[in-house]
Design a protein that fits this description.
globular, transmembrane transporter activity, SLC35_F1/F2/F6, transport
Length: 396
């Protein structure tokens, strides 16, 4: 009763703040579900193409990279020419990120040849523990025991899903496992791309503080190694045009991924799929599925950075959990496929794991731990200095 009374008093005294935060959260939830529907739609189009025995993953992704170049490179040129904006990171880093992105997309789309949309959507949850490891190494993130337990539970759910594929009597084929492996490797590559994307998008905070958001002051060399070649214009614009600079980070990232991804994707297209493309029986349906896939993926790429910037990667991962549910509905009602009972168990286990993982916000926890460590170091320095005799202290 005491808790309810305090909560009621807080809401009464701060109803404007509560209302604003509630509306903002509702807006983020709606926005995230739009992204989930776009993500699921790419899976539906891939499933349709797979049903026609058409598997040309590189060509499918070509439309996305082409649209990124057409939409964002002109805006990037305006930033560069008119406002003299500097580069966030070196070009070869963008090339590496684009390579991981292209191959991640290729493997996940390739997986539709062997497995189902429901399995693929759940297996993509493997991205979360991979992001944890990469964020700890490169972004110096700190994790509570709930994050570790949640990731382990997710892995148990993924193992259950693979067991379901092995035990399903209608799929006693190694192809199912091939699809699972393709999807898992693709999830690792997605993790590399996601961590890199978070770093670039939040570059404004990083460059202004000299360290990655939530990083340890002693380990900020990672950011120092990433040279900002012409960052003065960027820093000068921040106080008055922060939104302008924030949008620049997103535009630069999407432009470079489109350019480098397009080049890598085109080379791979001629190397791997030239023969398959010539053998495709083209028609309005095939063209429509390819265009639909490309447009949905392009919109997904364009909107994800805004969700990351407005909330956090943690919120995004929790929101994308519902993609498994949407994929399940698509599998049952659109493709009329039966789902094994272990799938529901795997889905429930992964749900529990992700909820456990998101009990404590990882960014807030990282900042809290970092502040505590800085405070301890300052206290230790004070103790060490006080132990030095006055006549031996160095006067600066």
């Amino acid at each position: 009763m005491a808790f309810k009374k305090k909560a009621a008093e807080y809401i009464k005294d701060n109803w404007r703040t509560v209302l604003f935060k509630s509306l903002r959260l509702l807006g983020l939830i709606i926005f995230s579900q739009i992204l989930v529907l776009l993500l699921t739609s790419t899976g539906v189009f891939s499933e349709y193409l797979s049903g026609l025995n058409i598997n040309i993953p590189t060509l499918q992704n070509t439309f996305n990279y082409a649209l990124l170049v057409i939409a964002y490179v002109p805006i990037l040129l305006v930033y560069k020419i008119r406002y003299q904006m500097g580069w966030n990171i070196k070009w070869w880093m963008y090339a590496f990120i684009a390579f991981a992105d292209v191959e991640g997309n290729y493997l996940v789309v390739l997986a539709y040849r062997y497995t189902t949309i429901t399995s693929i959507m759940l297996l993509n949850c493997f991205t979360i523990p991979c992001v944890m490891v990469l964020s700890r190494i490169f972004l110096k993130r700190r994790y509570n025991w709930t994050h570790v337990v949640g990731a382990i539970i997710c892995l148990i759910g993924l193992a259950t899903l693979i067991i379901n594929d092995v035990l399903n009597p209608s799929k006693l084929d190694v192809n199912q496992l091939i699809g699972d492996v393709c999807c898992l490797i693709g999830a690792v590559l997605y993790a590399i791309s996601n961590v890199s994307q978070e770093f670039v998008i939040k570059r404004q905070e990083q460059s202004s503080s000299g360290a990655v958001v939530g990083s340890d002051p002693e380990t900020s060399e990672f950011v120092d190694d990433v040279e900002v070649e012409a960052g003065m214009a960027l820093d000068e614009a921040q106080p008055k045009f922060s939104w302008f600079v924030e949008f620049y980070h997103i535009v630069e990232y999407l432009s470079m991924i489109g350019l480098f991804g397009g080049v890598i994707n085109t080379i791979q297209l001629f190397a791997l799929e030239f023969t398959q493309i010539r053998e495709v029986k083209w028609g309005a349906g095939v063209a429509g599925y390819l265009i639909g896939f490309g447009v949905c993926l392009f919109l997904f790429y364009s909107l994800v950075p805004f969700l990351i910037h407005s909330s956090s990667a943690t919120f995004m991962n929790l929101s994308f959990l519902s993609s498994g549910a949407w994929a399940l509905l698509a599998s049952i009602f659109i493709f009329k496929k039966e789902v094994g009972y272990l799938f529901y168990i795997a889905f429930a286990v992964i749900l529990v794991g992700l909820i456990t993982y998101n009990v404590i916000d990882e960014e807030e926890y990282t900042k809290k731990v970092t502040q505590q460590e800085v405070q301890k170091r300052e206290e230790q320095i004070s103790v060490d200095e006080s132990s030095i005799p006055i006549n031996e202290r160095v006067v600066e």
